[in-house]
Amino acid sequence: MTPQSTPGWEPDGSPTTARAVAGPQVEDPAPPAPVRFWQRRVWAICFAIFALEIGLFLVVFPWMDSWNINHLPSWFPRLQDLWEDLYLRGAVSGLGLVNVYIAGGEVIRLIRRPGGMR
Question: The domain containing residue 51 runs over which residues?
Fold first, then answer.
């Protein structure tokens, strides 16, 4: 019979933690089955398409007339000047270019490495 340990201090001065009472040992569950090749590829392709769509939207939308036709500036009148500022539009387009770059990198990685995401 193994005695139950209580929180306290070890002889070397370090704190102890509560330990389980002796009993049946529970094995760690088996690791999940590995993700299959095609599943990795599909997820990587979906991510690349999503990043490309978001990126293209963010590149184009700030320069359309629809940018000014929304409720956000009317809710926050002080932000009206900022909303119409060309620098903000450029920053949003720059964020879109980053998304397009990420999508392109993902596609190149998928082409170069046949295993997809690892």
Answer: 37-65+79-112
Tell me whether residue 21 is in a domain.
no
Q: Is the pLDDT of residue 6 over 60?
A: no
- Three-state SS string over the chain comes to CCCCCCCCECCCCCECCCCCCCCCCCCCCCCCCCCCHHHHHHHHHHHHHHHHHHHHHHHHHHHCHHHCCCCHHHHCHHHHHHHHCHHHHHHHHHHHHHHHHHHHHHHHHHHHCCCCCC
Residue 110 has pLDDT above 50, yes or no: yes
Are 51 and 102 in contact, with CB atoms under 8 Å apart?
yes
88 lies in some domain = yes
Position 5 confidence tier, pLDDT thresholds 50, 70, 90: low
- Of the pLDDT bands very low, low, confident and very high (cuts 50, 70, 90), residue 116 is very low
Q: How many structural domains are present in the chain?
A: 1
